Amino acid sequence: MNTDINVIWSRGDGEMPERAKRIVEEAQAELLLRSLRLPYEIADLVRYYADKNASTISDYISAIVVEHFKVSN
Predict the structure, then answer these.
(1) Under a CB-based contact definition with an 8 Å cutoff, are residues 59 and 50 in contact?
(2) Quick one: DSSP state of residue 65?
(3) pLDDT on residue 18
(4) C-alpha torsion sign, points 61, 67, 72, 73
(5) Helices (H), 13-54
(6) pLDDT at 71
(7) pLDDT digit string (tens) for 22-71?
(8) Which residue, 9, 4, 35, is CA-closest to 20?
(9) Suppose 57 and one of 5, 29, 33, 65 were both cysteines; which one would form an S-S bond, judging by CB atoms 3.0 to 4.6 Å apart?
(10) Residues 50, 38: contact at Cβ < 8 Å?
(11) 18, 49, 66 from 59: Cα distances, Å
């Protein structure tokens, strides 16, 4: 196992670099999709439509939930 780690940002270093932000956001999105335990095909659809709508996966799922509750009330 390789123990060499490149640290690109640490807390307290100021503003997080764009590359690090993108990596963190993508990891959070994947964790969200996995925590929802969606079938693989549905998770792929969520990724596709979020990308198509130029939004994050989290924002896309939030919009779906909000719309669902608007319709149900």
Answers:
(1) yes
(2) H
(3) 80
(4) positive
(5) 18-36, 40-52
(6) 86
(7) 888 889 999 999 999 999 999 999 999 999 988 899 999 999 999 999 88
(8) 9
(9) 29
(10) no
(11) 19, 11, 10
Mean pLDDT of the chain, nearest integer: 84
* Per-residue tokens: 29: 């999105």
Tens digit of each residue's pLDDT (9 = 90 or more) over 12-30? 677 877 877 888 888 999 9
Q: What is the pTM of this model?
A: 0.69
Q: What are the structure tokens assigned to 44, written together?
A: 């792929």
Instruction: Give Cβ neighbours of residue 36 (< 8 Å, ≥ 6 apart).
Output: 43, 61
**Residue of 64, 27, 25 lying closest to 42 (CA atoms):** 64
